[in-house]
Amino acid sequence: MFKIILSLKVLSISWYKRADKNIAALSHHLYLNQEQIMIAKIIILCAAFAAVCANPILTTSVVNTGASVSAKSQDGIGNYAFNYGTATNARAEIGDAAGNKQGSYTITDIDGRARRVDYVADAAGFRASVKTNEPGTALSAPASAAIASPYAPPVAPAVPAPVVAAAPALAAVPGVSSYSTVIGHGSVLGLPLGAGIIAPGLAKTIVW
C-alpha cells in the first residue's frame, strides 16, 4: 500500500512538472502571437498612411500661377506706407499720424473690365478719381469722384524683388486741403507714378 501511494505521488509530481512546462510554452507562444499582431497592425497603419500620401487628389495643393509683390513700412509716430500687386489687382497707400491718407487701387476682371481708383482722405474729406472701361460708364463728375471712361487695364507687372521704402513723413498741418505728395509705389506695382493732387476738392485734377 505504501508503495502504491509513493508511486502516485511520483506520478503527480511528474504530471505537474509537465503541466508547468506546457503552460510556460503556451504563454510564450501567446506572447509571440500578441507581438506579431501588434507588428502587423503597425505595418497596416503605415501602408494606409503611405496610400493616403500617394493620392494626388488629397495631396495636390492649389497651384498659384500668378506673381505678387508687396512692401510696407511704418514708424513710431503713425506714418506708414504699404503696397501690393498681382497680375490683376494692386493697391498702395501712404498715411500720417493725423489721419491723412493718399492711395490707389486697381482691379482687373477676367473678362477684361478694369477699374483704377485714386483717392485722398484728409481734413477736406474724401475725394476719388475713378478710371474704368466698364460698360455703361461715361465721363462724369459726382460730388466726390470723377469717372473717366474708357480705361485700358494695366499690363501685368514684372516681379522685381520687394522694395521696402521708409515711411514718408507727411506734415500734420491742421486744416490741410490739398496734397502735392506723390505716391511712390507705381514702379513696384508696374503702374504709373501715382497721383500728385492739386487744387483742393477737385479729384479730377490727377496728374499721371
UniProtKB/TrEMBL annotation:
<dbReference type="GO" id="GO:0008010">
    <property type="term" value="F:structural constituent of chitin-based larval cuticle"/>
</dbReference>
<dbReference type="InterPro" id="IPR000618">
    <property type="entry name" value="Insect_cuticle"/>
</dbReference>
<dbReference type="InterPro" id="IPR050468">
    <property type="entry name" value="Cuticle_Struct_Prot"/>
</dbReference>
<keyword id="KW-0193">Cuticle</keyword>
<comment type="function">
    <text>Component of the rigid cuticle of the spider.</text>
</comment>
<dbReference type="GO" id="GO:0062129">
    <property type="term" value="C:chitin-based extracellular matrix"/>
</dbReference>
<dbReference type="Pfam" id="PF00379">
    <property type="entry name" value="Chitin_bind_4"/>
</dbReference>
<dbReference type="InterPro" id="IPR031311">
    <property type="entry name" value="CHIT_BIND_RR_consensus"/>
</dbReference>
<protein>
    <submittedName>
        <fullName>Adult-specific rigid cuticular protein 15.5</fullName>
    </submittedName>
</protein>
